[in-house]
């Protein structure tokens, strides 16, 4: 399912216009993105938690040339699925 599928599903289930459904989906995802950008954690009970993980820099190797390359420190989002999601997927 993609964003359009979510909008269509919300439109049908809630009985609201597609424009209103799109606005709701946009607010939902933008709220999560804003929280992650601030360094906060986003948690939807039973579904998932998403947080930003810090990774230290390290020395890597270019696989083509074998030369050493300095990899800078970075922050990446980390998704951890919830218990209910695990149970529904592993039926």
Describe how the helices and strands are arranged.
Blueprint: H1 3-14, H2 18-37, E1 42-44, E2 48-55, E3 58-61, E4 68-71, E5 74-81, H3 83-89
Antiparallel strand pairs: 1-2, 2-5, 3-4
The helix-strand sequence is HHEEEEEH
Largest sheet geometry: 3 strands, antiparallel
How are the strands of the largest sheet arranged? 1-2-5
Estimated structural class: alpha+beta
Query: Helical proportion?
Result: 40-55%
Write the CATH fold name of the largest domain.
HU Protein, Chain A
Protein architecture, described:
This protein has two domains: 1-40; 48-91, Irregular (HU Protein, Chain A), CATH 4.10.520. The relative contact order is 0.13. It has helices at residues 3-14, 18-37, 83-89; strands at residues 42-44, 48-55, 58-61, 68-71, 74-81. The strands form two sheets. A three-stranded antiparallel sheet has the order 1-2-5. A two-stranded antiparallel ribbon has the order 3-4. The mean pLDDT is 94. By secondary structure, the protein is α+β, with helices and mostly antiparallel strands. It has three helices and five strands.
Briefly characterize the structure.
This protein is of the alpha+beta class and 91 residues long.
What are the main properties of this structure?
single chain, 91 residues, alpha+beta, HU Protein, Chain A, 2 domains, three-stranded antiparallel β-sheet, two-stranded antiparallel ribbon, 3 helices
